[in-house]
Write a structure and sequence with these properties.
Length: 114
């Protein structure tokens, strides 16, 4: 399928699809006319990429975990590597949340001094 059809079927802009390809997340063949052609499984891949982006993962991390994202309906095959990477990302998020809480507390303290 061409990029326009993949865009329509996934609700993702052609620009984003080209970006995913540039980031190594999505593969396209080039026809003799130079147009991108995607396999049928690209629809499921794009849905998985979107789910991982919504979870806050970077494209670099998604590139690492996408091979474990097998199955239909955006499901994930919980291979050990995927679980370890996602656990690490969750720990990083928890650290960021705690740092924001500390910053918020310091700001509230400054405002209370007025």
């Amino acid at each position: 399928m061409l990029i326009g059809e993949l865009s329509r079927r996934t609700g993702v802009s052609a620009r984003s699809l080209r970006y995913y390809e540039a980031q190594g997340l999505l593969e396209a063949r080039r026809g003799t006319n130079g147009y991108r052609a995607y396999d049928e499984d690209a629809v499921a891949s794009v849905r998985k990429i979107r789910a991982l982006l919504r979870a806050g993962l970077s494209t670099e991390v998604i590139r690492q975990v996408l091979p474990c994202a097998r199955g239909e309906q955006g499901g994930f095959d919980w291979c050990a590597e995927l679980r370890a990477i996602l656990d690490g990302e969750l720990a990083d998020l928890d650290e960021q949340i705690e740092a924001l809480r500390r910053s918020r507390g310091a700001l509230v303290g400054l405002l209370a001094e007025r």
